[in-house]
Amino acid sequence: MSRFVTVDRNTAYLLPPSVNDWLKEDHLARFIVEVVDQLDISNITRKYAGRGSAAHHPSTLLALLVYGYASGIFSSRKIERATYDSVAFRFIAAGTHPDHDTLATFRRRFLGELQTLFLQVLELAKEMKLLKLGTVCLDGTKIHANASRHSALSHGHIEKLEVQLKAEVAELFALAESADQANIPDGVSLPDEIKRREDRLAVMAQAKVKIAARAAERYAAEKVRYEQKMAARAAKQEQTGKKPGGKLPHAPQPGPKATDQINLTDEESRIMPVSGGGFEQAYNAQAAVDATTMLVVATGVTQAPNDKQQIAPMLGTLAAQPQTHQQVEHLIADTGFFSEKNMQACEAAQITALIAVARDEHHPDWRERHSAPALLPDNATPAQTMSHRLQTKAGRALYALRKQTVEPVFGVNQVGAGVSPILHAWFGQSARRVEPGVSGVEFEAYGRLAPEIRPMHLKCIESSSNSAKTGNK
């Protein structure tokens, strides 16, 4: 006769069950609760006036949100449902069930306060001897905006559409005033058709104003760079007495170009090339990751389609944070970040840069991998200096850390955690003014970078915490 484990769902517990019995000791939910309990959230609790019914404690709501994002659940409604269905969520909420409106209001109301908590997480990681620093890997990834690239209009296309729509409005007005409306199809409302076109003309007029404002900003920046180049050429000519060679810098032209675009759904996003080919409406998210612990130590979001200008802002973020100030010794990045200016910025910050000059072959000759590079000439260019540094044994070993450090932070979360597009409503201030590194290691989860970085951040802390518990006894 077969023997089975008895399942009895009707007998009541003799003693009240304890939530501590619901999860194993090394579960991520336990770790998040422990971390959140150690954070200083007094500035949030003070803002509760004490009126009305009893409120859920901010630490409970915060832990629910963090664990939800860490496990790929971003919707407030789904988090509310999980407090009934998921043992981990029931453990965090201790059997209570904050509704979705409470969770969404908490996130929206305390957005500014939540943005400072990641710095506390880093401080806690340093106290736990988890944050090593020394070597930091930097990379960027395109995150799709909550808008279609087909909703974008160029300045030239707007001008063509304006001519067409104005002609259609004039034609419709003429038909409306005409006594004979036999040529109008059945079901067509002339006032509705006219209003629809006038509304679109108004939207396009606003779009043109915004494109013109962007063009004015671009012209001002290009004019400064042009004047600097011309001044440098003049100084060189005065010093040498000879006319500098090469082509003269092109003088910038004011006004918008025909190709300047704006997206009518999310005007702060940009058309960007994406991996695999093609273009998408997106943002460029940046992350600096500690090579030892895979902790994210700096983040940023920019509208620049490439990474050439992102080194200096990220260095500024690392320098501005007490937890990372003067702690970084090596900065590793791929070829998208290489420029002479970026090398100089790293040298000024007393950081050794290892930035790829060009793409490496996937299957180099084995002798090349194990041979030392030739000696550098005295007049070596910055590119030659960097290439030589990466060809040394130490340089190759350090640069090999890049793919296994920062790329998993993006890849695991995009695929495994179900990252959704950046929602425009999640940006606290105008994203058009956001530059990489302005927020540092803050609660980007709730401000700008949303689900992109946070899950790996917490999972790495958990992994390192487990290692510390088992390996340092």
Give your account of this protein's structure:
The chain has about 475 residues and is α/β, with parallel strands linked by helices. The protein has 3 domains: about 20-115, no CATH class; about 125-150 and about 270-450, Nucleotidyltransferase, domain 5; about 150-265, no CATH class. Helices cover about 45% and strands about 10% of the residues. It has 17 helices and 8 strands. It has helices spanning about 30-40, 40-45, 60-70, 75-85, 85-95, 100-110, 110-115, 115-125, 155-175, 190-240, 310-320, 340-350, 365-370, 380-390, 395-400, 400-415, 455-470; strands at about 135-145, 150-155, 260-265, 270-275, 280-290, 295-300, 330-335, 350-355. Strands 1, 4, 5, 6, 7 and 8 form a 6-stranded mixed β-sheet that branches. A two-stranded antiparallel sheet has the order 2-3. Strand 7 (about 330-335), helix 12 and strand 8 (about 350-355) form a beta-alpha-beta unit. Helix 9 (about 155-175) packs antiparallel against helix 10. The longest helix has about 50 residues, at about 190-240. It starts with about 25 loop residues before the first helix and ends with a helix. Mean pLDDT is about 80; it is low at about 420-473.
Rg result: 29 Å
Instruction: Specify the CATH architecture of the largest domain.
Output: 2-Layer Sandwich
- CATH topology assignment of the largest domain: Nucleotidyltransferase, domain 5
The topology string of helices and strands comes to HHHHHHHHEEHHEEEEHEHEHHHHH
Mean pLDDT equals 78
Q: Supply the CATH class of the largest domain.
A: Alpha Beta
Report on the biggest sheet.
Answer: 6 strands, mixed
